[in-house]
């Protein structure tokens, strides 16, 4: 008989055993120490809270005992439950409907006033709040986000926020970006999957490229922005490293006001590269006779530009210029938009680095 200390009742204990999602064991599959990132960690008992059980860990490298972070100080609900409630609401469901979903998934009864308080508390990070009512007028919750599973060597969940995309491209500032909406729809319906599934001599991933782009006179701006703050919040609920990308992408797509798609498939052919070198005069040091493919982590439209974002854990130690340049060149070529209209960036919860891809391949001549 399993130990059930501090569990309210036999019935509740039964739910925990047969459906772990009812009372989640937070941090059950942690892979690294949260303090020194060492993999030399072991389980060190459990901590029982009112609505969750925390797995505690001990790190042999830094001699620290810890459990994954949950909600803010004084909160009786797991942060995972709070963020799932926010996502459900911003997908177009009512507060009552969101509470019912949480009850079914986690076995927790949450008062509507509590949900309203969460909506206020996290308003700064959920900027879709100002667009939600309009989106509900034109899209049902099931229509709001279009999801396509892409089996490209591994499974990618390609998502398009239809409500947000329609609203943004209808505005005067971003009307010229309608080709982006057309491309996203085309990839959902007619993606050439065979190009992504090919390997070896017939295809190559953009992230594998090692071309040495000339970065003279290219300014890479470092800052900490909304993407970093969202990543910091979401990562507190993620204990399995391979889930980090998907959880951050999903929360950004549902709750911010500018992310229009995630895991966007792109294609850059040798013919595309030749055209941009000869017709546009771009300095592209990519020598390949194969098609380059990839998936853009996060695609945003804001401030009159199309922003291509890549989430990189430990962003300060990364410099994925070639990967981001392939994404920008491919999207420019496929949509017919100028490279001038794009901004590239990579980020984690601490840092955000951005640059203009046009400055990388087109150097202004001195008079």
Describe the structure.
The chain is α+β, with helices and mostly antiparallel strands and 367 residues long. The chain has three domains: 57 residues, no CATH class; 43 residues; 226 residues, no CATH class. It is built from 14 helices and 13 strands. The strands form two sheets. Strands 5, 6, 7, 8, 9, 10, 11, 12 and 13 form a nine-stranded mixed sheet that branches. Strands 1, 2, 3 and 4 form a four-stranded mixed sheet that branches. Strand 10 and strand 11 form a beta hairpin. Helix 2 packs across helix 3 and helix 10 crosses helix 11. The longest helix has 15 residues. The N terminus is likely disordered.
Characteristic terms for this protein:
4-stranded mixed sheet, alpha+beta, 37% helix, 367 residues
Mean pLDDT: 86
Give the CA-based shape.
globular
- Which stretches are low in confidence, meaning pLDDT under 50 for 5 or more residues running? 1-24, 199-203
| Topology order in helix (H) and strand (E) letters | HEEEEHHHHHEEHHHEEHHEHEEHEEH
The number of domains: 3
* Residue share in β-strands: 15-25%
SS-derived structural category: alpha+beta
